Amino acid sequence: MNEQNFGQIEMPPRDDSFVRLYQNMKSELENVLVKMKEIFEERKHDEEVALLAENDDLLCQREDNDGDITPRHVHLSLNNDPQSMVFAWITFGNLPPSSIPIVKYGKDNNNLENTVTGSYSIFIYNGVIRYMYRATATNLEYNTRYYYTVGSEGNFSKIFTFKTFPQDLGIVNDVSMIPLRTAGLRGDFDMIIHVGDLAYDLHTNNGALGDQYMELMEPLISSMPYMVIAGNHEYDWKAKNFENYERRFYMPKNGDGKNQYYSFGVGPIQFIGVSTEFYGFFYDFGIQPVLDQASWLEKELQKANQNRNNKPWVMTYQHRPFYCSNENSMECDAFENLVIRTGYLNMPGLEPLYGKYGVDINWSGHEHSYERMFPVFDRQLYNQDSDPYHNAKATTYIITGSAGCHSYQAKFGNPSPFSAKRLNKYGYTVMHIKNMTHLYFEQIDTQATETNTVVDSWWMSKDLDYVINDENILQFLDL
Fold first, then answer.
1. Which domains does the chain have, with CATH numbers?
2. What sign results for the dihedral spanned by CA atoms 469, 472, 477, 479?
């Protein structure tokens, strides 16, 4: 073949089979990565449960309480009405047909003059029957102490007490019960927000561990609202659901109705609970829960911004963090973190919404450590001012995952430019609402020899009409 003939050879038409092959390989690789993540999570879960099983005083068989209608697991929660309180409890036996669940309450413990009727549902898990009750008192007075008892005629609980309008909030993850319970009963805070991983795990031993957790927490959570959001340990790997979490608690019903996402207000703050577990377990649930939450969240943030005159602070809380500097890079700077923060393919991330609507603070856990970030958006620091927490230019992220559990304290990797303070001591965070424009935060060390040892403290403040709307963020979001 001479040069002239070579130049005249016609090339065959382009075949896109290589494109299809690439796309198929890409899809297969994504499936493998998802499966590897699932195996990793299962092994991690099994190891943690095995560690817990070594501690016999935490993993004990529930007594045979069949037929027992004694009220147990009494706890409180808020809904989207600031002048109401939700009461919840369970029994292991069914009430007689003539009995109805009720709450008696009043401002005098010798005269519980008010009564509200409750509703109930039956929760059957691995053959164990639990009867779940709830009732709601409305038109409560602000800053007032109330006394109450729950149950049915002839089978009431002891008298509990609570005070309306929380001023100091304890925010925790992976609870160390004794220090937290002691501090709460001492009056160090008036409400708890628990950002996931409640009991390691609620469903363990046919739910017996969840029962014991609620028994141990009852002295505290019967005296103040206990607001929860799901973490990965609320997921039942065998049943492939969050049923033990969804059935034991009653969060506001203005979200998905199953405690996965919702909102409520306290004083000058609008709180929005968000599920990161729809991302973590999307291979079980698909993309639709992520899409539904994103649509709801945008509308909720729009409403929150329209109400900034009454509630100038908007805070979100979730289990898995966007930013962290722990040694476990998979959770701090890899696929899992990136998907939740920015999204993946048709799956929307959460950070663009936080930036678009000027979320002031985001709380998370998951990492067994405490870390306070400078204001940050899309991995860009906004701490140039002498006081970066006054009229902050971006969302401030706080990881409060060190309240303590059966597992371990996380190790830190290389310092992150986003990190203002990080500690791997067991503890919890308390937020003090000082007024409409000033908040004060303390990280409490639960391992210290002295009680109330503060290992980090800081102020956050804003002008009354200030909302985060930095030009760089808006430009990034193409707004």
1. 72-162 (2.60.40.380), 166-476 (3.60.21.10)
2. positive
Measure CA 377 to chain center.
Answer: 21
For residues 53 and 59, the answer to whether their CB atoms sit within 8 Å is: yes
Position 174 confidence tier, pLDDT thresholds 50, 70, 90: low
Say whether the peptide bond before residue 56 is cis (omega within 30 degrees of 0): no
Where are the strands (E) in 45-118, listed by range? 72-77, 85-91, 102-106, 114-117
Cα–Cα distances (Å) from 372 to 321, 330, 342, 442, 467, in that order, read 12, 20, 21, 11, 21
- Condensed to tens digits (0 to 9), the pLDDT of residues 72-129 reads 999 999 998 889 999 999 999 999 999 999 999 999 999 999 999 999 999 999 999 9
Q: Residue 293 contacts by C-beta under 8 Å, 6 or more apart in sequence?
A: 255, 256, 260, 261, 274, 275, 278
pLDDT at 333 > cutoff 60: yes
**pLDDT tens by residue, 210-268:** 999 999 999 999 999 999 999 999 999 898 999 999 999 999 999 999 999 999 999 99
Give the SS3 label for residue 337.
Answer: helix
Name the strands in the sheet holding 438-445, side by side, starting at the edge strand that comes first in the sequence: 226-228, 191-194, 168-172, 427-433, 438-445, 453-461
Strands (E), 360-407: 361-364, 370-373, 376-377, 380-381, 396-400
- Top pLDDT among 385 and 427 is at 427
* pTM for this predicted structure: 0.85
Residue 4 is predicted with a pLDDT of 42
pLDDT over 60 at 48, yes or no: no
Answer for the pair 295, 251: CB distance below 8 angstroms, yes or no. Answer: no
Q: How far apart are alpha carbons 349 and 346 in whole angstroms? A: 10
Distances (CA, A) of 64 to 53, 67, 93, 150, 215: 20, 9, 11, 22, 15
Write out the two tokens for 295. 């649509």
Tokens of 185: 């009963």
As to burial, measured by CB atoms within 10 angstroms (0-12 exposed, 13-18 middle, 19+ buried), residue 39 is exposed
